[in-house]
Amino acid sequence: MTELTAHTDMHRDDRDVGEKPDAAVVRDALGVGVAVGLSGFAFGVTSAGSGLTLLQTCALSLLVFTGASQFALVGALAAGGNPFTAAAGAFFLGVRNAFYGLRLSQLLALPRAVRPFAAQWVIDETTAVALAQPTRRSVRIGFTVTGLSLYVLWNLTTLLGAVGARAVGNTDAWGLDAAGPAVFLALLAPMLKSATERVVAGAAVVLGLGLLPVLPAGVPVLVAALAAPVVLWAEGRRRGTADLNDPVDARDARNDDGQKESR
Amino acid sequence: MNIWIAIGVTAVGCYAVKLLGLLVPAGVLERPVVRRLAALMPVALLAALTAQQTFADGRVLVLDAKAAGLAAAALALLLRAPFLVVVGAAVVVTAGVRAVMG
């Protein structure tokens, strides 16, 4: 949280020493927006390969617009999960965006009327770019340029991927079914910073695979998610719950920012 | 129809949490335990999803070319390759193993 505290007293204006040229902010934002936006192609292919129609695939990128949730949803539907367990898994993956929004609302200081429109762009990448900026002006530019370029490209490449997958026919023969798990791994890797994260990940893999044959499709993933509170509780008991307020934990809680490093 | 229900529920739910973050006063979700849990939940979900989509076919556990593809992705991540290269490595290696094994 130290970083956030440093940013929240951002009452200084743009003439401050921490100023960064607008062009540099735009360049950083476009770098992230274009690189990640292109991976909408992998989503389009995966979604179409999972049996969703072109319209359903594009609706997901337009309306959900948070990659991991989209991949989780089509994966769960392809595995035969019912719509609500599939949506629950996707929803829980999207909950982290609420915490990004908490930080961004202070940094962006948007008028309340604008917030419902900005909300759709509150995701990993826009947060990472915005948090890296020194002034309110550059935070706003970084968020807007990343959000716009990523949204436009993600939807465009989703469409191309879905159309392409249909043209190709059997996407498995081209190895395209490996794109989904590879995306998850790429999102997961930078989060595995401390022993706690690795224990949670290991327990979730065991639960997710072990329960697969015995529970209905989609449910094992939700049970595996319980690894997080269980490990957290066990850790708290081991060290005494008061320790949860120590700075190390607060720093760990920001691990999601680490995704930026992988891109 | 089932798929549209899932899309609708996911779209509304995911938009609602994004908006919630922008609208609630800071402090409401700032309890350390809540923040910690929010950081750990994606770890658990992504780990379980990665494993399932690699090693599961329906409700049966399988070991096929996707495992080789995922290993390639892991190697690319260790070498700090960009996001698209990681995904590309998984796809190419999976397709290659399938082509070789018939």
Automatic annotation (TrEMBL), chain A:
Question: Could you name the Gene Ontology cellular component terms for this entry?
Answer: plasma membrane
What keywords are assigned to this protein? Cell membrane, Membrane, Transmembrane, Transmembrane helix, Transport
Q: How does it sit in the membrane?
A: Multi-pass membrane protein
Looking at the record, which segments are called Disordered? Answer: 244-263
Q: Where is the composition biased (Basic and acidic residues)?
A: 248-263
Please give the Pfam families that the UniProt record associates with this protein: AzlC
One GO BP annotation is:
L-valine transmembrane transport
TM annotation in the entry: 29-46, 141-167, 173-192, 199-228
Record localization: Cell membrane
Name the PANTHER family on file. INNER MEMBRANE PROTEIN YGAZ (PTHR34979)
Question: Which family is this sequence assigned to?
Answer: Belongs to the AzlC family.
What is the name of this protein?
A: Branched-chain amino acid ABC transporter permease
UniProtKB/TrEMBL annotation, chain B:
State the InterPro entries in the record: Brnchd-chn_aa_trnsp_AzlD
User: Pfam families this protein is in?
Assistant: AzlD
Q: What is this protein called?
A: AzlD domain-containing protein
Q: Which residue spans traverse the membrane?
A: 6-25, 37-55, 67-97
- Organism, by scientific name, is Streptomyces nodosus
Keyword set, alphabetical order: Membrane, Transmembrane, Transmembrane helix
